[in-house]
From TrEMBL:
Protein name: Bifunctional protein FolD
Secretion signal span: none
Catalyzed reaction equations: (6R)-5,10-methenyltetrahydrofolate + H2O = (6R)-10-formyltetrahydrofolate + H(+); (6R)-5,10-methylene-5,6,7,8-tetrahydrofolate + NADP(+) = (6R)-5,10-methenyltetrahydrofolate + NADPH
Protein's job: Catalyzes the oxidation of 5,10-methylenetetrahydrofolate to 5,10-methenyltetrahydrofolate and then the hydrolysis of 5,10-methenyltetrahydrofolate to 10-formyltetrahydrofolate.
Subunit structure: Homodimer.
GO molecular function per UniProt: methenyltetrahydrofolate cyclohydrolase activity; methylenetetrahydrofolate dehydrogenase (NADP+) activity
EC number: 1.5.1.5, 3.5.4.9
Amino acid sequence: MTRIIDGKQQANRLREVIGQETLGLQERHGIRPGLAVVMVGNDPASQVYVRNKARQAGEAGIASFEHRLEANVSQQALLALIATLNADPAVHGILVQLPLPASLSEAAVIQAIAPDKDVDGFHPINIGNLATGARAMVPCTPLGCLMLLRQQLGELAGKRALVLGRSNIVGKPMANLLLRDSCTVTVAHSRTHGLAEECRRADILVAAVGRPGLVTGDWIKPGATIIDVGINRIEEQGRSRLAGDVDFTSASQVAGAITPVPGGVGPMTIACLLLNTLQATCHQHRLPFAEDIPQRALPTHRKPTRSVTS
Ligand SMILES: Nc1nc(=O)c2c([nH]1)NC[C@@H]1CN(c3ccc(C(=O)N[C@@H](CCC(=O)O)C(=O)O)cc3)C=[N+]21
C-alpha cells in the first residue's frame, strides 16, 4: 500500500516540541527566540508565507519581526537594515525572502547576514560547513525533506537517491544531506540525458525543479519514496490550484510512500525555520541545543531493517 506522508501533521508535531523547548528557554533563562523576516516588494504569494511564518512562530513561543521594504529600495538601505538586525540581540534569526527584485544582488545580501543568524542556511559559510560535514545551519526545505525521509525509512544508508534539481536552495543542499546520511546520490536536472531511466533507479526521489507534473508513475521504481518539493500555482478549468513536480495520481499507484502538495514539504519548511531559529538562539547564548528534537517529535515509522539487497 502506498503511504501518503502527512507533512502537515509531522510539522505540527515538530512545532509542538519546539514550543516546549522555547518555553524551557524562557523559564530557565528568560530568553525568547526572535526571528526577523525581511520582505522586499509585495509579491502576493510571498505575503502568504510571511503571514504563516509569523503566526506559527508566535504559537511556538518565537517573537517575529517583520520588515517590509518597497520594491525600489536601494541595496545600501537593505544592507543597512541587515547590519542593524545582525547587531540586535533580540534577533537570533534573519530571513530575507527570495527572490529579490532584479535590481538587488541576492549574493551580496545573503553574504551580509551574520552566519550565526542565517536561519535559511544560504550564507557561503553555512553552505561550506554543510558540504564538509561540519556543524552548519541547514536550509529549511531540504532539512524538512530529510526529516520526512528518516521518519518514513528509518535508515537511509546505502539507498540510491536521486535529486531532481540543482538549485542552491534545495537541490545542492539536499544532495549534501543525503550524502551525509550515506545515500548513493545522483543530481539530475533539465539537461540530464535519460532522465526517466535515472529516476527509475532511485529508492528515494526528491523532485525540486518547478515543473508541474513532470514526474509520472512510469518514472518511478515500485516501492520508492517520493518527496515532492514543487509548489507550482497552476490554472486548471478556470481555477487556480497548487501542483507539485510529481503527477500525484499516477505516482501514487507505484510509489511506496509519497508527499502530497499542498500538505507535504511546505509545512515542514516553516517548522524547520523555527527549529533553526531555536538552534541559533541557543548557539548565540552559548546554551546547549537539543539535537534530538526531530527524533523526539517524529519517531521512525518503520523499524530499520537490515538488508543486503537494498
Ligand atoms: N529566503 C527564503 N526562504 C524560504 O524558505 C523561502 C523564500 N525565501 N521564498 C519563498 C519560498 C517558498 N517557501 C514556502 C514555504 C512554505 C510553504 C507552505 O507552507 N505551503 C503550504 C501551502 C501554502 C498555500 O496553500 O498557499 C503547503 O505546501 O502545504 C510554501 C512555500 C519558502 N520560501
